[in-house]
Design a protein that fits this description.
It is a single chain. The relative contact order is 0.11. By secondary structure, this protein is mostly helical. Helix content is about 90%, strand content about 0%. The chain has one domain.
């Protein structure tokens, strides 16, 4: 079994199933924190899918896109934690 077969038949289906499960968690999340964590995890799964696609197509430029997406996800998480901290101080 080559690395390409492993990526096609094991990694991509696992990432697809994870994406569906995380999206359900995003829709059903009882609190805002649950939804933000699910959104962050969706972005991380998307980064994994982009990385696998980059390996399969042998185009390393997609890894730059994945890195930018990771930075945006990190900044979003930091902004949300800052918002929660300010909200707790006001209450």
């Amino acid at each position: 079994m080559t690395i390409y077969n492993y990526l096609y038949y094991i990694i991509l289906p696992v990432l697809a199933v994870c994406t569906v499960i995380i999206f359900v968690r995003f829709l059903k999340g009882p609190t805002l924190s649950d939804r933000v964590v699910a959104l962050d995890l969706l972005l991380t799964t998307g980064i994994g899918i982009i990385a696998v696609y980059s390996i399969l197509t042998d185009q390393p430029s997609f890894l730059d896109i994945a890195m930018i997406l990771a930075l945006i996800a990190f900044l979003g998480t930091v902004a949300f934690s800052y918002y929660l901290e300010k909200r707790e101080k006001n209450e």
